[in-house]
Protein: ABC transporter ATP-binding protein
Amino acid sequence: MRPAIALTTVSRSYGRGDSAVRALGNVSLEFPAGSFTAIMGPSGSGKTTLLQCAAGLDRPDSGSVRVGELELTELSEKRLAQLRRREVGFVFQSFNLLPSLTAAQNVVLPLRLGGQRPKRGTARAALDRVGLGKRARHLPAELSGGQQQRVAIARALVAEPRVIFADEPTGALDTRSAREALALLRSLVDEDGRTIVMVTHDPVAAAVADRVVFLADGQVVDSMTAPRADAVAARMTALGA
Ligand SMILES: Nc1ncnc2c1ncn2[C@@H]1O[C@H](COP(=O)(O)OP(=O)(O)OP(=O)(O)O)[C@@H](O)[C@H]1O
Structure:
């Protein structure tokens, strides 16, 4: 079966000359459809760069990035923007909800920005999926951090993307809200067959994934399937994180 995402010899550097930083060096990785992968590594190891190249938010200097049938490095900016709205969803550490919009309005915002008029019930269905159907009219400030992150997950789901990218989704949450958000992400894989790629510093969060990929200095240095938090933590310590 074709993987949901495939990176082949992807390199990305920032800056030029003496000050150039090689954020990714010849990284090849596949993310099977319907799998949950955690990306870990010390600060500056290239995790966010990897996520952004895989999601079409950044362009690698060389190499290939395939999302389903599409070769992202060949797409125009316009097609990349379409892909980001339709084929992939994003969840960030800082939720990124607009404070003046209700939960329901935030959820359908990606559709509106894409020029669509959301069907009745679309926001409610997405909020129901994350257990917040009753909070549709609430503003972000009227919701807890954990609830705001679930609204952000509902927003990521609204275009029914096959792939969801999450950058430190539990970084701003207390332990209990983090556990709930992770259980929700897990269910999107197990029940809905979506593919998740999640950057995290937290071994407990990584242990929810099917596989952990470890980066160091812009390279894949190890991976672990059926990860346990203690083993992940030990591997991170060995990497000097
Ligand atoms: N826009 C940029 N301009 C210059 N250098 C950058 C830029 N973005 C990232 N880098 C550099 O590329 C390297 C990889 O950065 P990246 O953010 O991918 O790492 P990370 O593993 O996500 O780090 P962290 O865990 O601290 O978020 C770092 O050395 C970083 O300083």
In short: The domain at 36-52+85-238 is CATH 3.40.50.300 (Rossmann fold).
